Amino acid sequence: MSKTMRYMWLYACLFPTFFFVGLFLLYPSIEAFRMSFLDWNMSNYLNPTFAGLDNYVELLQDPIFRNSFIILLAFLLWNIIILQGASILGAYLINYLGNTGLAGFFKVSFTIPMVLPGMVTTMFWLFFYEPGNGMLNHTLGLLGLENWQRIWLGDSQLTAMLSIMMKGFPWVSGLGFLIYLAGFQNIDESLREAARIDGASAWKIFWTVDLQLILPQIRLTTVLVLIGGTQQFSDQLIMTKGGPGYDTMVPGLYMFNNAFTYGKLGTGSAIGVILFVITLGLTLLNMKFMREKR
User: Fold this and answer.
1) Per-residue DSSP letter, 43
2) Which domain does 9 fall in, by range?
3) Are residues 26 and 67 in the same domain?
4) What pairs with residue 284 in β-bridges?
5) CA angle at 60 for the pair 267 and 230, rounded to the nearest 5°
6) Arithmetic mean of pLDDT over the chain
7) Around 286, how many Cα atoms within 13 Å sit in the side-chain half-sphere?
8) pLDDT of 292 above 60
9) Could you say which DSSP state residue 173 is in?
């Protein structure tokens, strides 16, 4: 009896997992790709017709869709530079606190938000920016700074985008923080000690020793940020609905609106396919770049 046949029962135990992964993950992805070539909306919901590349041509000619990628690029740069930087800095500083009680307090503080639904955090910040009785405008009023009060999520594109970007201050991602902290803790202390003996400053040790040795973690988190950031739309949906106007509209939200608000299922599927291709390309490019830097 072959080894495969001998352990066939193990494959049988794994079959339900593969079945449900295929049913709920793989099949919808393939179906979305097929739907992107259909003229399918609420008027012909039961009888969609083949449209070829019409959905893609329509999107490429759509100024709202094109502008949404410029807005997405701004959010991605913010996530990669500021959020990644804050997570690295937080993990680096806490690593130097060692096993003290203060370090434990900060570790818990930065990881507790991971167990909260993202909707809770977003709703808190929505209340924070509420123009009438929101925490921010109320605090500015108490300080006598009424002239600084704004309709933060609807005043202008710059104000709305900055308000969404400020969400999550101090921007230390729980997952990224844990990954970087583990990376710093695995660095041999003798390397830092050798750099100190050579007269290296704390900044130089961080730049030439610590940061270089956590490049695999940076590569991993950058891929995760690119994937999650390209697909994001929940913050914009809840906080601004893409407004004011279309000034905070990102492709993910435009896909949601086309599919579930406007009833244009074929166009929404086409946007999903485009986002998939872009995400795949960015991920492959990032992995290739990081591999060459090793």
Assistant:
1) G
2) 1-30
3) no
4) none
5) 70
6) 87
7) 20
8) no
9) -
